[in-house]
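Example complex used in Figure S2.
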Amino acid sequence: MGGGLVLSRVADKIFWMSRQMERAENMARILGVTSNLVLFGADAADQNLRAPLSITETEEAYSERHDKLTLPGLIEFMALDEKNPSSIYSCLKWARENAHAVRWQITSEMWETLNATWLEMRAIPRSRVTGSGATQFFDWVKDRSHLFRGVTYGTIVRGEAFNFSRLGTFLERADNTARILDVKYHILLPSVADVGGALDYYQWAALLRSVSSFETYRQLYRDQIFPIKVAQLLILERRMPRSLAACFDQVKDALDRTKGEHDAPAKRLGYELHARLTHADIEEIFNGGLHEYLSECLEDIGELGNRIQRAYLGMV
Amino acid sequence: MERRHYDEMRAADGEVRSHFRALADWLAETPAERVAEKRREADLLFHRVGITFAVYGDEAGAERLIPFDTIPRVIPKAEWDALAKGLRQRVNALNRFLDDVYHGQEILKAGVIPAEQVLTNEAYQVAMLGLDLPNKVYSHVAGIDLIRNDDGKYYVLEDNLRTPSGVSYMLENRKMMMRLFPELFARQRVHPVEHYPGLLLATLNAAAPERVRDPTVVVLTPGQSNSAYFEHAFLAQQMGVELVEGGDLLVNDGHVYMRTTAGRQRVDVIYRRVDDAFLDPLAFRQDSLLGVPGLLSVYRAGHVALANAIGTGVADDKSTYPYVPEMIRFYLGEEPLLSNVPTWQCKKPEDLELVLDKLNELVIKEVQGSGGYGMLIGPTAKKAEIEAFRARIKANPANYIAQPTLSLSTCPTFVEQGVAPRHVDLRPYVLSGKEVKLVPGGLTRVALKEGSLVVNSSQGGGTKDTWVVD
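Predicted assembly (786 residues):
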């Protein structure tokens, strides 16, 4: 469209397709780490199995469909269940549906990536995903998400469609990183008094790996794994592309470029979150309580999503 | 009952026609395995790109591929030029007719066409009376269906002046052929069709309200569940304009706007692929969710253009069809260059009697039908079907016309047993803006079932690339 404008309905689909692909990737990350921990017999197997459900707030939905909490049951529910709106299956399906609705506004490469992903997803035998092929499947999902993001970045016109794709991707990623940290931290370190105490190295390494940050941690801090530094890395370290600060650098950039008639409430909150993450201090965060801090972040991220919806994407 | 057909590739003596020779040589020297492999590749590509169409009455959201045949249909340039001239003439006359029936109605006054034929027609829109359109064009995009009879002559089977579809397949088929068989295009010059979207955009720009300098054009689609959705999306993308649904548009202060993330944006030209009845719930069907409330009032005020215009159906109705040659003589003072198929109108008592007498030899069509539905093909129909149709015709004769069963020409086609002749038709697309333009070619539809004359994609038809060659 002339002037880089985009229909509200179209922006909405692009925003959500980007969120859904990012969510599928995050589900795959969480499940990948969980199956590793469970299969290698780490402590607190039950807590580890429960974590993905608490992260996605789906404990109830799970227990409605499964009697027992098992790894195959968890994978079935979170990777393949059509009725679970956060399952990888549902995310890939809806990402493709949304792309189908706007395939003329996105590039043909973007559409073809999502369409091919969905066609492949449907052809994958379920028993392989819940069995020996689980890791391979999670890697495939991550690959498809990387591919989609790369294809998007490399082909789409820099205009409003691009901005809403970025907003969707990084709001979703920020939301997921905050949730993973919140839940895992709670399992690994039930009491703040334990900060600096003996650590289950494998559990912490797994947490870092779930956000592709194990090597990053080593590289940036050249140190043993300390809980407070893990929090620093995942919340405030803007060199780490899955941290909240890095996500909000991208959100701020996208908001800067986006023009709307009544978008002050959305921009105000987006910029405020960005400023908070830029100037925060990890010690202060811990003093006030990490869980409380992350809960507030999650609430604000949710509210920002709503305000973006109202300002640009139209009410449904 | 086997009849002789015009074979597009071979003359009666079995000799390959000269314009088909390059292709025939290539077919003969290319191993069948390579061609089969390419066909599988084509299927895969079409699936991957998602070139599918929804089928009415099929399970919700079902998407199918329209079978694509890899053997092109070839037309020599001189033959095409003659066809194109006839098509321009015909579409000019049809647009003149539409302007006339919504203004002075000279053709009715002259008694060339019975007034009730036009004025009581379901597709006649009183809302269009007295409305002046830019360039006096009503059908900006027309699809004219042609067949070639066993006498080797082209006949117009029907005019599609409302929202003709299929042009995306013309474009995609060419792209696919060039991708699969580049060596074929090196052997002879095939006239390009790729500039169609550019011509279409120019045509739509020319339809804009007069005062508008740099018009904003949109494509209006009924939405994803429409059988031609792929095409709507494809054309919008190729022209670089927005694809909108009814809900994206609103009427305010006498203008049409679309809802964007940055607020409202004026719309000047709507290439609409939504039927008349669904365009504006305030003016037409109240239950329509596909349209834009108030659109007609803006249209009548001349603040937005619709392509095609409202009410073009009165000219492409099968009961109007028999009068097209007379229109050409009346408006242009010329003899028609393209022939009509002889047609009996069941509303005329003498025609009705003749038709009922020869039901087993004729093709019977509903005057408003399309897509190959509501049709009886006498020679291949079962007795019971014929009798059922007889009762329907008698109950409402004005709803039917009859034509002789023409023998559609055949073109070599890949079928399971190998290469075999199958019946084809041809739909070129005629664009009317400041002048009438068309790209050399069109959509060739092929009936894949042996002996079948029904080429519609909804009933097992496929498509071919259409080559106009020097």
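Chain B has a mean pLDDT of 90. The interface with chain A takes residues 47-50, 214, 216, 224, 233-234, 236-237, 240-245, 247-248, 258-263, 265 of chain B (CB under 8 Å).
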